[in-house]
Amino acid sequence: MSALEIGRPRKKFAPGPGLLYAILALLVLGGGYFLVPRFEWHRPEIKIVPDADAIGVAPLEIAVSEQGRGLKSFTAILSSGGTEHSLVSEQYDQPVMDKKFAVSLAKVTGLKEGPAVLRVTARDRSWWNFFRGNEAVVQKNITIDITPPTLELVADDRYINFGGVGVIVYKPSTDTVSSGVKIANYFFPGYKGQIKEHPDHYIVFFAHPYNVAETEKASLLATDKAGNTREMKLAYELKNVKYKKSTIRIDDNFIQQKVAPLLNDVAARQASAKDIFIKVNKGLRKENEDKIRSITEKETPTILWHDAFSQLSNSKVEANFADARTYVYNDEPIDSAYHLGYDLSVTKHYPAEAANSGTVAFVGDLGIYGNTVIIDHGLGLFTLYGHLSSIDVKVGDQLKQRQVIGKTGETGLAAGDHLHFGVYLHGLAVLPVEWWDQKWINDNVQPKLNGSADETAEARNEARPTRKVARKHKR
User: Fold this and answer.
1) Distance between CA atoms of 209 and 182, rounded to whole angstroms?
2) Sequence-ordered list of residues with C-beta below 8 angstroms from that of 322, at least 6 positions apart, any chain
């Protein structure tokens, strides 16, 4: 230390401008990290299902979701006839991100039909808007309608084959937006404008499915835009309730020659013969049936066919519809499946014919069914032609009855040359044989299309059961 430095007062530390700016920036960032999320400005989202201008007794679902600080309160108020009805009113002490409410007007006392206003309000816990939070409001002018539509059964079907099709004609009230027949998990829609001289009448082709208990009965349903539903139980006698059960033995040669090639996964082909068969018969079969269902659930709202459908010329029924098959390998039952069609045999590479007029809906490889054609006949009715060796039509082609669509073969899971023929109604496989029967068409379908199915005709049908399906039991 020099003599000049002795006795000089020591300088105090003074932060420079850079450090002050850095501290200030940290304070701003810290404050922003703490405050910005609390001042978020995104409103909660409200969704009302169904989003209709009329509300009935069917439950109304109100859903609210929050992406920020969580919900603080939620209310739903219905104003009708000068009276306010509180449907939902909730306050939340802790943040809630999502809530759903099922609101039933049937439980609201004193509610009258007519115009009303539904007001739904949700508020979040944000400090935005002077600490009041973000508010979302949905207000709808609606009509309260708690009266279900009416149904008049014009012509019914007294006798239906188990797994087969029934036909009814009905007249719903004008406020009906959807109608048809429901049984178990199956629904068959009705079609307007198909009945001669009665354009306001509906016709519906429905099935008693092969896989639904014979004790279960179908119902005619009509639903209006407010969600109100009228249900009418149908009365019919179920005929021919027994289906065949069969056992099919398979061996290594069949699995290697016919089954394994259907697997696209090379590794899967290296599994045991038993596992290969199960993967195809269960897994691939389900994929194929799902594909068929997706094609045959599509609707053409007009009828494209006329009179009875044609059985393949000179053919013999070798395997029947809804046979419950058990597959046996090395004396062990390893799998089972329903056979959903007829196997028709003639000679090798025999010309396959369209069973009736219609439009080609599908052409291509369909796994266990091999080369396949599916034809749309309108009103939810389709026919399927499988195991073809060649195909002579394309999607969209308009076909006439008995027009050649290809040649029979043994593609897919076929043990020999034949045609697999299936009939589908709104995605469900149904009994094919009655569609070959002109008498069944004349007795059960044509009078209803002509608008001539009256009470006298129904009385005759009740006194005289429909002809039993003899071909159904042929082998």
Assistant:
1) 11
2) 163, 210, 243, 338, 339, 340, 429, 431
CA distances to 305, 376, 411, 428 from 300, rounded to whole Å, are 12, 8, 29, 16
Q: What is the DSSP letter of 9?
A: P
Q: How far apart are CA 230 and CA 204, in angstroms?
A: 16
For residues 198 and 451, is the Cβ–Cβ distance under 8 A? yes
- For the chain, list the domains and their CATH numbers: 41-144 (2.60.40.2550), 151-239 (2.60.40.2470), 245-436 (2.70.70.10)
What Cα–Cα distance (Å) separates residue 218 from each residue in 227, 263, 317? Answer: 20, 39, 30
Residue 356's pLDDT is: 98
Alpha carbons 267 and 276: distance in angstroms, whole number? 11
* Over residues 128-148, mean pLDDT: 86
What is the C-alpha to C-alpha distance for residues 430 and 422, in angstroms, rounded to an integer?
Answer: 8
Beta bridge partners, 76, equal 88, 120
- Predicted confidence band at 379 (pLDDT cuts at 50, 70, 90)? very high
Query: What is the spatial distance between Cα 59 and Cα 63, in angstroms, rounded to a whole number?
Result: 13
Whole-number Cα distances in Å, 215 to 48, 184, 210, 211, 291: 39, 11, 12, 12, 30
Q: Give the 3-state secondary structure of residue 388.
A: strand
3-class secondary structure, 102: strand
Q: What is the DSSP letter of 210?
A: T
pTM: 0.81
- Strand locations in 225-322, DSSP E? 229-233, 237-239, 245-250, 316-319
Q: Is 254 helix (H, G, I), strand (E, B) or coil?
A: helix
